[in-house]
Amino acid sequence: MCVQRDTGAQRAVKVLRKSHMDEDEKRMLFNEINILKEIDHPNIVKMYEFFEDDKRYYLVTEICKGGELFDEVLARGKFSERDAAVLMKQVLSCINYCHTHNIVHRDLKPENILLEQNKEFDQIKIIDFGTSLVYEPGKSLDEKLGTPYYIAPEVLNKSYGPKCDIWSAGVITFILLSGVPPFNGQGDAEIMKKVRLGKFSFDDKCWASISDNAKDFISKLLTYKQEDRVSAAEALKHPWITELSTVAVDESLALGALSNLKNFKTD
Q1: Is residue 107 annotated as part of the catalytic site, yes or no?
Q2: pLDDT of 124 above 70
Q3: Inter-CA distances, 42 with 74, 95, 130, 184, 188, Å
């Protein structure tokens, strides 16, 4: 945490020692800076200043004191459909804004979603634009980037567009409601093999208490062919998002989801 001397406003400062960074890490840092400079959205962390001295880089952003989304889910013990829908509306709003400005995030996951101190799910901030990219509409991307659980199959096949972010949003929704990832395995290779197949199910008993609307929403985001997958704008109009359905959650199922999440906590 740091304080802006003129106003007394609290900020976050990321301090990076140059000697500890390789060329790739420096490239990602400057990529993040260049992207954050150009965008302004209530659900994207705001960058205020960037400066450097002989030994370090300093990236000053707004501060989020609520921690990571993942930790909050663990602390609550369950995630209602309403909370999940409110949160995913913000995530999709962010994705829609980025895609409208020809920016693809490429590493959406709960660790990159921060909460404000009041823990309200309508005030989240998306962070980590180091792997983001300004893309040319209609031109396919081929750089394999992302986190195994959340990566889209077309990214693994090295021919993808911005809808890889939609896939990641579908995986996040699946995890929030069930506590398990849709594509799971013992290690990265096994997980990515499952992602390449793209087959998931709602067979686990925890899905018995979850609405058909939620399942339909996830299915549309986890549509295998990217050309058939919904856009962020279309996903925002889905009944599950617009109606913010509230369902009763069976306590034992919720505790089961919590146990699953604890086992699933990523590095």
Answers
A1: yes
A2: yes
A3: 25, 12, 19, 33, 33
Residues 6+ apart with CB under 8 A from 251: 78
Catalytic residue among 24, 71, 107, 128: 107
The answer on pLDDT for 109 being more than 90 is yes
The confidence score (pLDDT) of residue 248 equals 41
Tokens describing residue 96:
């829609």
- What residue ranges do the domains of the chain occupy? 2-61, 69-264
**For the purposes of burial, counting CB atoms within 10 Å of the CB of 70, is it exposed (0-12), middle (13-18) or buried (19 or more)?**
buried
Q: Pick 2-61's CATH classification: 3.40.50.800, 2.60.120.10, 3.30.200.20, 3.10.450.50.
A: 3.30.200.20
Distance (Å, whole) CA 148 – CA 143: 14
Structure tokens at 117: 């101190």
Phi, psi angle pair for 164, to nearest 5°: -60, -30
Distances (CA, A) of 218 to 108, 114, 139, 151, 212: 16, 22, 26, 15, 10
Strands annotated E in the chain: 2-3, 10-17, 47-52, 56-61, 103-104, 113-114, 125-126, 133-134
CA distances to 54, 91, 161, 210 from 84, rounded to whole Å, are 45, 10, 26, 12
pLDDT tens for each residue of 42-61: 999 999 999 999 999 999 99
